[in-house]
Description:
Belongs to the ABC transporter superfamily. The chain is an alpha/beta fold and about 250 residues long. It folds into two domains: about 130 residues, Rossmann fold (3-Layer(aba) Sandwich); about 90 residues, no CATH class.
Amino acid sequence: MTNQIHLKSVNLHYASAAFKERSLKSMIASMATLRGARKKVVDIHALKDVSLDIGPGERVGLLGHNGAGKSTFLKMVAGLYPISSGERVVKGTVRSLFDLSLGFEPDATGRENILYRGLLLGLSPKFMRSIEEEVVAFAGIGEFIDYPIKTYSAGMQVRLAFAISTAVGGDILLLDEVIGAGDANFMGKARERILDLVERAEILLLASHDFVTLQSICARGIVFHRGQIIFDGDIRGAVSSYNRANGIAV
């Protein structure tokens, strides 16, 4: 099977309520403020008529201002967000590096969470046990691996999540921005591991505002603006297109 991403006229909508109310408490507060006034919920058209094909060997950079649709696009490709219409075909094992806190059980230990997160990634318990010590060593959190996750600092949680998520590569690698994962020593290890995953992946999609990194890794660039693709071509041309769309003089 040839690894590929094929999208034809893909549209994706969000219910606006999903953005406005982050918790039950905030929802109740807003309802009290409105004092019974009815508020119309309008869907947000997050991706608009997206069509493209990405094949083996391609390294694709995704550009766009915050809210332009890059992260939504990656999560749609990963299968986390269902499309509203169009055609989505993704062939190959997908590994994504975003939402690193997903799958952690606060009351369980770090060691137990290695297993839980592995299951969420579609990996077997036997396999996760086989790489457990490697993950523990890479995360570098010492004896805390046997403490509940809720006792960890934010940095420790990210380091463990990063170690688990990158322990296994995939045919299609999805990366969303650079990950802040702790001290300089760990960041050096993290960068080396990411570059190794990039090297081994058949297809790479990298969303970033770091144009230097994009141009050093990617040959193709796709620019998003208000949920639409406004440029798809050479990475240098993509950077120029982004600058023009955002009124940036070069």
